Amino acid sequence: MADLIFIFLLALVWLIFAVIQDLKTREIANWLNISLIIFALSFRFFYSLFSENFSFFYQGLIGVGIFFVMANLLYYGKFFAGGDAKLMMAFGAILPFSESFSVNLNIFLMFFFIFFIVGALYTIFSTIYLSFSNFYMFKKEFSKIFKKNKKRIYLAFIFGLILMIFGFWQEVFFILGILIFLLPYFYVYVKSVDEACLVKEVKTSQLREGDWLYKNVKIDKKIIRANWNGLTKQEIISLKKKYKTILIRYGVPFSPVFVISFLIVFYFWKTSAFETLWSFLGNSLW
């Protein structure tokens, strides 16, 4: 019991610091994520050493391995930035609450399920907030993107309506038609929020390693490309020599999703809600 309380408090303290840093600087420092992994695994090792039962330590190592794979899939799939991916890895050292691998695997699956649900809701509410707080720019960008893609959007509307008509004979076509009908609006909405609310002009003196360029920048014969890995130190030095300001693309700070998901999973684990929810999901999926 004491071991789980310590692990929970350790993770919670680190997560609070991660959220504060993420909201202030739009990044999570490597030292914060790596130190969480080191502290969690170190505690597991010494606790196992004194209790003469190393399964508590081994489960942490296995967890880090599983979450390492998941974090890389999300990073290279361009769902996560580097800081979020490393924070995901750290959860592999935190979430094995049991000495049984099968039980921990259920906890991991539960965490991923809750994480993606919370992440989707968080993203929706975040974009709504951004669109209203920058409504003039959002409205202008929405109109611009809609006009630019007008022909494709109208084709999707027509195709969606045709499918909805077929839905009178087969219900699945009606549902599919609604999705296709709404998808263009969703695309324009998300693209408008991205362009109008998440692109800022920043002084090159304030650039940090890993910042995302809005678009490619040419410096003499060299092109610094806007890519998912962000700016390197050398690229920042080159930009400072040539430009005073540059357009940078920001993401929505995602660290609060980790905190919310972690608290929900821990609550489920400490109550009968874990077995109840897991049984419900199992019955729903199978």
Entry keywords:
286 residues, mainly alpha, 3 domains, 3-stranded antiparallel beta sheet, 11 helices, 74% helix, 6% strand
Written account of the structure:
The structure is a single chain. This protein is mainly α. The chain has three domains: 2-129 and 253-285, no CATH class; 134-198; 199-249, no CATH class. It is built from eleven helices and five strands; from the N terminus they run H-H-H-H-H-H-H-H-E-E-E-E-H-E-H-H. The strands form two sheets. A three-stranded antiparallel beta sheet has the order 1-5-2. Strands 3-4 form a two-stranded antiparallel sheet. A hairpin with a 2-residue loop joins strand 3 and strand 4 (222-224). Helix 1 runs antiparallel to helix 2 and helix 5 (101-133) packs across helix 10 (255-270). The longest helix has 33 residues, at 101-133. The protein starts with a helix and ends with a helix. 25% of the residues are buried.
